[in-house]
Amino acid sequence: MQFELETQTNTPSPSGFQKLPAELRLKIYAYLFTTYRIEIVRKKDKKTNGTKKPRYRLYNKRLRPREDKSQGNTERAGRWWLKRLPMALIFTCRSIYSDTILLLYANTQFVFTTTNAITRFIKITPADAQASIRHVELKHIMYNEPRLTEFRIYKARSDMAFYLACEDMALAFKSLRVLHVDMRIYDWPIRLEIGELWSLPLLFFGGEGGTGTKLDEANVRLRMVMFSDETLRRVARDLEQRMMGAVKFQVREDERLARELHMLGRKAKVLRLVM
Protein backbone atom coordinates (compact mmCIF):
# COMPACT_ATOMS: atom_id res chain seq x y z
CA MET A 1 0.00 0.00 0.00
CA GLN A 2 1.20 3.44 -0.81
CA PHE A 3 0.35 6.35 1.41
CA GLU A 4 0.38 9.93 0.21
CA LEU A 5 2.16 12.26 2.57
CA GLU A 6 0.06 15.23 3.57
CA THR A 7 1.88 18.51 3.48
CA GLN A 8 1.23 20.64 6.54
CA THR A 9 1.80 24.36 6.57
CA ASN A 10 2.29 26.54 9.60
CA THR A 11 0.47 29.47 8.03
CA PRO A 12 -2.61 30.21 10.15
CA SER A 13 -5.91 30.63 8.40
CA PRO A 14 -7.31 34.18 8.36
CA SER A 15 -9.93 35.03 10.93
CA GLY A 16 -13.47 36.03 10.14
CA PHE A 17 -12.61 39.69 10.63
CA GLN A 18 -9.76 39.51 8.13
CA LYS A 19 -12.08 37.93 5.56
CA LEU A 20 -14.25 41.04 5.55
CA PRO A 21 -13.88 43.45 2.61
CA ALA A 22 -11.24 46.12 3.01
CA GLU A 23 -13.88 48.88 3.00
CA LEU A 24 -15.62 47.41 6.04
CA ARG A 25 -12.37 46.87 7.91
CA LEU A 26 -11.33 50.48 7.34
CA LYS A 27 -14.67 51.72 8.70
CA ILE A 28 -14.18 49.61 11.83
CA TYR A 29 -10.64 50.90 12.25
CA ALA A 30 -11.94 54.47 12.00
CA TYR A 31 -13.76 54.00 15.32
CA LEU A 32 -10.57 52.81 17.02
CA PHE A 33 -8.02 55.24 15.61
CA THR A 34 -8.92 58.72 16.81
CA THR A 35 -6.78 61.85 16.71
CA TYR A 36 -3.53 61.66 18.67
CA ARG A 37 -0.94 64.36 19.33
CA ILE A 38 2.59 63.46 20.38
CA GLU A 39 5.86 65.33 20.74
CA ILE A 40 8.91 63.58 19.31
CA VAL A 41 11.75 63.95 21.82
CA ARG A 42 15.37 62.96 21.28
CA LYS A 43 17.07 61.85 24.49
CA LYS A 44 19.95 59.70 25.64
CA ASP A 45 19.28 56.01 25.88
CA LYS A 46 18.43 55.15 29.48
CA LYS A 47 19.87 51.62 29.26
CA THR A 48 23.43 52.52 28.24
CA ASN A 49 26.28 51.74 30.61
CA GLY A 50 28.56 54.42 31.95
CA THR A 51 31.58 53.04 30.10
CA LYS A 52 29.98 53.11 26.66
CA LYS A 53 29.35 56.18 24.57
CA PRO A 54 25.74 57.29 25.16
CA ARG A 55 23.35 56.76 22.26
CA TYR A 56 20.36 58.92 21.51
CA ARG A 57 16.90 57.53 20.86
CA LEU A 58 13.50 58.97 20.05
CA TYR A 59 10.76 59.05 22.66
CA ASN A 60 7.23 60.40 22.52
CA LYS A 61 5.28 62.62 24.88
CA ARG A 62 1.50 62.62 24.72
CA LEU A 63 -0.14 66.03 24.31
CA ARG A 64 -3.66 67.34 24.05
CA PRO A 65 -4.82 67.06 20.42
CA ARG A 66 -5.91 70.05 18.41
CA GLU A 67 -9.42 70.34 17.07
CA ASP A 68 -9.75 69.32 13.45
CA LYS A 69 -11.94 72.26 12.41
CA SER A 70 -10.60 75.27 14.27
CA GLN A 71 -7.00 74.04 14.89
CA GLY A 72 -7.14 76.29 17.93
CA ASN A 73 -4.92 76.57 20.96
CA THR A 74 -4.64 73.37 22.98
CA GLU A 75 -3.74 75.11 26.25
CA ARG A 76 -7.33 75.65 27.29
CA ALA A 77 -8.95 74.86 30.59
CA GLY A 78 -10.75 71.62 31.30
CA ARG A 79 -9.90 67.97 31.49
CA TRP A 80 -9.32 65.75 28.53
CA TRP A 81 -9.27 62.01 28.16
CA LEU A 82 -5.88 60.56 27.29
CA LYS A 83 -6.54 57.66 24.94
CA ARG A 84 -3.88 55.02 24.62
CA LEU A 85 -2.31 54.29 21.29
CA PRO A 86 -3.72 51.01 19.91
CA MET A 87 -0.29 49.43 19.60
CA ALA A 88 -1.51 45.98 20.69
CA LEU A 89 -3.95 45.90 17.79
CA ILE A 90 -1.35 47.05 15.28
CA PHE A 91 1.11 44.27 16.18
CA THR A 92 -1.48 41.49 16.26
CA CYS A 93 -0.36 40.03 12.94
CA ARG A 94 1.16 41.12 9.65
CA SER A 95 -2.19 41.53 7.94
CA ILE A 96 -3.60 43.88 10.58
CA TYR A 97 -0.26 45.69 10.75
CA SER A 98 -0.46 46.42 7.03
CA ASP A 99 -4.02 47.70 7.44
CA THR A 100 -3.48 49.95 10.45
CA ILE A 101 0.07 51.29 10.54
CA LEU A 102 -0.62 54.02 7.99
CA LEU A 103 -3.84 54.98 9.80
CA LEU A 104 -1.83 55.58 12.96
CA TYR A 105 0.56 57.97 11.23
CA ALA A 106 -2.26 59.71 9.33
CA ASN A 107 -4.29 60.38 12.51
CA THR A 108 -1.34 61.53 14.62
CA GLN A 109 -0.36 65.17 15.06
CA PHE A 110 3.44 65.24 15.27
CA VAL A 111 5.22 67.97 17.24
CA PHE A 112 8.95 68.58 16.68
CA THR A 113 10.96 70.93 18.90
CA THR A 114 14.54 70.19 17.77
CA THR A 115 16.25 69.74 14.44
CA ASN A 116 17.99 66.56 15.60
CA ALA A 117 14.63 64.96 16.38
CA ILE A 118 13.39 65.76 12.87
CA THR A 119 16.50 64.32 11.23
CA ARG A 120 16.40 61.14 13.31
CA PHE A 121 12.67 60.68 12.74
CA ILE A 122 13.04 60.90 8.96
CA LYS A 123 16.00 58.51 9.05
CA ILE A 124 14.33 55.65 10.96
CA THR A 125 10.68 55.98 9.86
CA PRO A 126 9.48 54.00 6.82
CA ALA A 127 8.87 56.01 3.67
CA ASP A 128 5.24 54.86 3.40
CA ALA A 129 4.54 56.03 6.94
CA GLN A 130 6.12 59.42 6.26
CA ALA A 131 4.02 59.83 3.13
CA SER A 132 0.82 59.38 5.16
CA ILE A 133 1.55 62.11 7.74
CA ARG A 134 -0.94 64.97 7.47
CA HIS A 135 -0.30 67.17 10.52
CA VAL A 136 3.05 68.61 11.69
CA GLU A 137 3.97 71.26 14.27
CA LEU A 138 7.41 72.88 14.31
CA LYS A 139 8.87 74.81 17.24
CA HIS A 140 12.24 76.24 16.30
CA ILE A 141 14.60 78.65 18.07
CA MET A 142 17.29 80.03 15.81
CA TYR A 143 20.92 80.28 16.86
CA ASN A 144 21.77 83.73 18.19
CA GLU A 145 24.19 86.06 16.43
CA PRO A 146 27.63 85.34 17.98
CA ARG A 147 29.73 88.14 19.37
CA LEU A 148 32.95 86.80 17.84
CA THR A 149 33.40 86.00 14.17
CA GLU A 150 35.12 82.69 14.91
CA PHE A 151 31.90 81.36 16.48
CA ARG A 152 29.70 82.21 13.51
CA ILE A 153 30.27 78.76 12.03
CA TYR A 154 28.02 77.30 14.73
CA LYS A 155 25.14 79.53 13.70
CA ALA A 156 25.70 78.63 10.04
CA ARG A 157 25.61 74.92 10.92
CA SER A 158 22.41 75.29 12.92
CA ASP A 159 20.64 77.27 10.19
CA MET A 160 21.77 74.84 7.48
CA ALA A 161 20.64 71.82 9.51
CA PHE A 162 17.15 73.28 9.94
CA TYR A 163 17.06 74.22 6.26
CA LEU A 164 17.88 70.65 5.18
CA ALA A 165 15.46 69.16 7.72
CA CYS A 166 12.58 71.24 6.36
CA GLU A 167 13.49 70.25 2.81
CA ASP A 168 13.49 66.57 3.75
CA MET A 169 10.13 66.92 5.49
CA ALA A 170 8.56 68.70 2.54
CA LEU A 171 9.71 65.92 0.21
CA ALA A 172 8.88 62.99 2.51
CA PHE A 173 5.54 64.13 3.97
CA LYS A 174 3.61 63.99 0.71
CA SER A 175 0.18 64.04 2.40
CA LEU A 176 0.94 67.01 4.64
CA ARG A 177 -2.10 69.28 4.92
CA VAL A 178 -1.75 71.09 8.28
CA LEU A 179 1.38 72.91 9.46
CA HIS A 180 1.90 74.94 12.64
CA VAL A 181 5.12 76.91 13.06
CA ASP A 182 6.36 78.67 16.20
CA MET A 183 9.68 80.30 15.33
CA ARG A 184 12.00 82.60 17.27
CA ILE A 185 14.17 84.66 14.93
CA TYR A 186 17.61 85.80 16.03
CA ASP A 187 19.09 86.89 12.69
CA TRP A 188 20.32 90.46 12.59
CA PRO A 189 20.36 92.82 10.75
CA ILE A 190 17.21 91.91 8.81
CA ARG A 191 14.11 93.67 7.45
CA LEU A 192 11.76 90.81 8.34
CA GLU A 193 10.71 90.13 4.77
CA ILE A 194 9.86 86.88 3.01
CA GLY A 195 12.88 85.76 1.02
CA GLU A 196 15.46 86.40 3.72
CA LEU A 197 17.51 83.51 5.08
CA TRP A 198 15.27 82.91 8.10
CA SER A 199 12.21 82.34 5.86
CA LEU A 200 13.77 80.01 3.27
CA PRO A 201 13.21 76.74 5.23
CA LEU A 202 9.49 77.49 5.62
CA LEU A 203 9.05 78.16 1.91
CA PHE A 204 9.65 74.47 1.19
CA PHE A 205 6.15 73.73 2.47
CA GLY A 206 3.12 74.33 0.34
CA GLY A 207 3.38 75.19 -3.32
CA GLU A 208 6.86 76.74 -3.08
CA GLY A 209 8.68 73.41 -2.80
CA GLY A 210 8.43 69.79 -1.78
CA THR A 211 5.46 68.08 -3.43
CA GLY A 212 4.11 71.35 -4.82
CA THR A 213 0.74 70.89 -3.08
CA LYS A 214 -0.79 73.79 -1.19
CA LEU A 215 -1.54 73.28 2.49
CA ASP A 216 -5.10 73.27 3.79
CA GLU A 217 -4.10 74.99 7.04
CA ALA A 218 -0.96 76.96 7.90
CA ASN A 219 -0.53 78.74 11.21
CA VAL A 220 2.72 80.69 11.64
CA ARG A 221 3.81 82.52 14.77
CA LEU A 222 6.97 84.61 14.58
CA ARG A 223 8.83 86.02 17.57
CA MET A 224 11.45 88.75 17.32
CA VAL A 225 12.21 91.38 19.95
CA MET A 226 13.34 93.97 17.40
CA PHE A 227 9.94 94.19 15.65
CA SER A 228 6.45 95.02 16.83
CA ASP A 229 3.71 92.43 17.22
CA GLU A 230 1.76 93.98 14.37
CA THR A 231 4.69 93.60 11.98
CA LEU A 232 5.25 90.01 13.06
CA ARG A 233 1.59 89.14 12.51
CA ARG A 234 1.58 90.76 9.07
CA VAL A 235 4.64 88.83 7.89
CA ALA A 236 3.26 85.61 9.40
CA ARG A 237 0.01 86.06 7.46
CA ASP A 238 1.99 86.58 4.25
CA LEU A 239 3.83 83.33 4.91
CA GLU A 240 0.57 81.51 5.53
CA GLN A 241 -0.83 82.80 2.26
CA ARG A 242 2.27 81.62 0.39
CA MET A 243 1.91 78.14 1.89
CA MET A 244 -1.86 77.79 1.45
CA GLY A 245 -2.48 79.72 -1.72
CA ALA A 246 -4.75 82.72 -2.16
CA VAL A 247 -8.00 80.74 -2.47
CA LYS A 248 -7.55 78.46 0.55
CA PHE A 249 -6.22 81.34 2.62
CA GLN A 250 -9.28 83.48 1.89
CA VAL A 251 -11.64 80.58 2.64
CA ARG A 252 -9.89 80.02 5.96
CA GLU A 253 -10.19 83.69 6.89
CA ASP A 254 -13.89 83.75 5.96
CA GLU A 255 -14.56 80.70 8.13
CA ARG A 256 -12.76 82.30 11.07
CA LEU A 257 -14.78 85.49 10.68
CA ALA A 258 -18.01 83.48 10.52
CA ARG A 259 -17.14 81.63 13.74
CA GLU A 260 -16.34 84.89 15.52
CA LEU A 261 -19.62 86.46 14.43
CA HIS A 262 -21.48 83.35 15.52
CA MET A 263 -19.90 83.49 18.97
CA LEU A 264 -20.75 87.20 19.27
CA GLY A 265 -24.35 86.41 18.37
CA ARG A 266 -24.55 83.72 21.04
CA LYS A 267 -23.13 86.08 23.67
CA ALA A 268 -25.67 88.76 22.71
CA LYS A 269 -28.54 86.27 23.15
CA VAL A 270 -27.28 85.34 26.60
CA LEU A 271 -27.13 89.01 27.60
CA ARG A 272 -30.71 89.58 26.44
CA LEU A 273 -31.95 86.60 28.45
CA VAL A 274 -30.21 87.82 31.60
CA MET A 275 -31.58 91.34 31.24
TrEMBL record:
Stretches the record annotates as Disordered: 49-71
Which residue positions does the secretion signal occupy?
Answer: none
**A Pfam entry, by short name:** DUF7730
| Source organism superkingdom | Eukaryota
Q: Bias regions of kind Basic residues — which residues?
A: 49-64
Domain DUF7730: residue ranges: 17-183
Q: Which InterPro entries match?
A: DUF7730 (IPR056632)
Q: What is this protein called?
A: DUF7730 domain-containing protein
Origin species, per record, is: Aspergillus campestris (strain IBT 28561)
Q: What is the lineage of its organism?
A: Eukaryota, Fungi, Dikarya, Ascomycota, Pezizomycotina
